[in-house]
Amino acid sequence: xxxxxxxxxxxxxxxxxxxxxxxxxxxxxxxxxxxxxxxxxxxxxxxxxxxxxxxxxxxxxxxxxxxxxxxxxxxxxxxxxxxxxxxxxxxxxxxxxxxxxxxxxxxxxxxxxxxxxxxxxxxxxxxxxxxxxxxxxxxxxxxxxxxxxxxxxxxxxxxxxxxxxxxxxxxxxxxxxxxxxxxxxxxxxxxxxxxxxxxxxxxxxxxxxxxxxxxxxxxxxxxxxxxxxxxxxxxxxxxxxxxxxxxxxxxxxxxxxxxxxxxxxxxxxxxxxxxxxxxxxxxxxxxxxxxxxxxxxxxxxxxxxxxxxxxxxxxxxxxxxxxxxxxxxxxxxxxxxxxxxxxxxxxxxxxxxxx
Amino acid sequence: xxxxxxxxxxxxxxxxxxxxxxxxxxxxxxxxxxxxxxxxxxxxxxxxxxxxxxxxxxxxxxxxxxxxxxxxxxxxxxxxxxxxxxxxxxxxxxxxxxxxxxxxxxxxxxxxxxxxxxxxxxxxxxxxxxxxxxxxxxxxxxxxxxxxxxxxxxxxxxxxxxxxxxxxxxxxxxxxxxxxxxxxxxxxxxxxxxxxxxxxxxxxxxxxxxxxxxxxxxxxxxxxxxxxxxxxxxxxxxxxxxxxxxxxxxxxxxxxxxxxxxxxxxxxxxxxxxxxxxxxxxxxxxxxxxxxxxxxxxxxxxxxxxxxxxxxxxxxxxxxxxxxxxxxxxxxxxxxxxxxxxxxxxxxxxxxxxxxxxxxxxxxxxxxxxxxxxxxxxxxxxxxxxxxxxxxxxxxxxxxxxxxxxxxxxxxxxxxxxxxxxxxxxxxxxxxxxxxxxxxxxxxxxxxx
Lengths: 355, 449
Known about the structure:
The structure holds 2 protein chains of 2 kinds.
Chain A: H1 18-23, H2 30-55, H3 70-78, E1 85-88, H4 93-98, H5 103-110, E2 134-137, H6 144-157, E3 164-169, H7 176-187, E4 192-198, E5 201-202, E6 205-206, H8 207-210, E7 227-231, H9 235-250, E8 256-261, H10 279-289, H11 291-301, H12 306-329
Parallel strand pairs in A: 1-2, 1-3, 3-4, 4-8, 7-8
Antiparallel strand pairs in A: 5-6
Helix pairs in contact in A: 2-3, 2-11, 2-12, 3-9, 5-12, 6-7
Chain B: E1 3-6, E2 16-22, E3 29-30, E4 35-40, E5 45-49, E6 54-59, E7 65-69, E8 73-78, H1 107-110, E9 121-125, H2 126-140, E10 144-148, H3 164-168, E11 173-175, H4 180-192, E12 196-200, H5 211-219, H6 221-224, E13 234-238, H7 254-258, E14 264-266, H8 271-283, E15 288-292, E16 300-304, E17 317-320, E18 325-329, H9 332-346, E19 351-355, E20 358-360, H10 364-374, E21 377-380, H11 389-401, E22 410-412, H12 423-429, H13 433-445
Helix pairs in contact in B: 2-8, 4-5, 9-13, 10-11
């Protein structure tokens, strides 16, 4: 199901010159490897705890867990640069943590508390951090894609050397606005990296039952957007592909598509029993392709000791425990919050908001 | 045999134009498809072709003639130089064969009836004032850019963005593909990215393709982010019925957008308000829906000579004082309400006309204050009656001024039908001056004394 090796598309329009790709250092230093491992582990443990809190009734509504897909966002974000912007759909907890948002604030938003990133008014699917350049957290499938192109437009307009990392799922690739976005991004050579997280199922529908044609990486071919399919369970493969794709976007060559072949271990949302796939399929993926297990092996080969790994495990546990306590003890939003943040006050003294 | 060449209508709302130039002279031989003249409208210059072979027997309208009505005979085509040329007088050049379907008061009747302009001013069309508003704000703030279909090289489908490309260049005046949902969403992302987009929809009918981005992304994100994600964006373009363009191109969206918290909704009537409100909208840190009207684009009003002419969003304007009945209206309906007020005055009914200017936030204080004076209220809008702006105003007045009402609130609205194409049916579907008069009379007569 998951591509074992990276399959590269034939050379097409807009591909980066080889010299650019060749300069990228694919083997990060050990400290970076440890940070990548820790980031993935934090997402795994955070999501497991979120699932538990959901079962206890402390998290409401829709809750989409990222377990199994950790290598995608961690690999991508490890390759990004300060000032790069990020936007994604509703399976967003991992993206927020990978962008450096505090676990406390994310977990407290899940429990609908005042200490959450949206002060309890957004929930699992709607969180943002201007400071960390994370622009949501959007609940409508595919709607984040033109927004990502708009963020890329703003980078180019302001002559910033930055890229917008626009994440979408395999379910979103059949929405019309995705192709409107591909067209504009290519037409205006906007620095937008589209990351298709192909976790094989759009809710309960297998991608093969929903998407006609060739690989999702090729969905930009008609617009001249280069695309590449990557083993999204291998964080170093993700990182390597991300460095190449980001360099392409950053150097003014326009957008790029990375299709990440990945897998979610849990259902689409907490209320999904996932009857559309077999237990064996899920178990095989966990045993043979788990991104965290794979990374642990890489680290052991780099002579990282079990003690060092345990120390990371325990650091992560502390972060998640603390975030949980914060999310459980932070107060519910003040009732006055019901009517705040609907419109911003007009700060220009020459104009009155309401007379 | 001789045939008449008529002044053509070049758009659904064109009533007259300037015959800029003849490209043929009397006695010239022409073949069907030959360009014989250039005609200027307030939007553009167009070439006129002959559709028959023949000889130009007579040019009836001189080059440079202005305000030549549609369907005026402008030339006579003859088969043979020996043919007799019909009597010129029989061509009846002054009278258009058909009256336009949309009744708009003459420009002279409008001036002075809207926002009272004091100090130095210039007569400008609504079209020019909107363009000036954008140009001034683009000079003031380099984060402001204009994006939409045909806004740049074509100079605007309705010429509202005329000249902006020349002054500001392609970086800031951007032609898009026909991709409403895409460029509306792009605009939202750019606003999140701290730019100030002005997104033009060729008409608001096409914004239906983009309404998810407008409502779910632009309007709600500030709230969903706990106040972090302001979205300073203007969505603007013509709204409501144009003329004879049928159901899919003739709809008022005021109540659709006004329904949703997180948006401001503006719909001006006069050129001065159009300019002052658009400038305020561009400076506003919130998403603003700016509903224009195609039929109004060519109407002229006095506009102050002031680069900082701002009209505050959220404030209605009493454009005519009266004591017997209050009439609320917005956009093109203000002109009809003013005409209705004149007719009501002849019958001894003194009507007060309020130009709402902003639909949301609605200036209830001005409406309620007027109702407390007149004790009667009728509302006017082109849109459908069900869950319309009039329904909301009636509820607001009932909540805030029930004891002051001497009669139930009544409304003059578009009929509850998709817009028909046929000229007579379209006229029936839209609220006309006489409908407003009749509605006001019913409210006053039944309850007088």
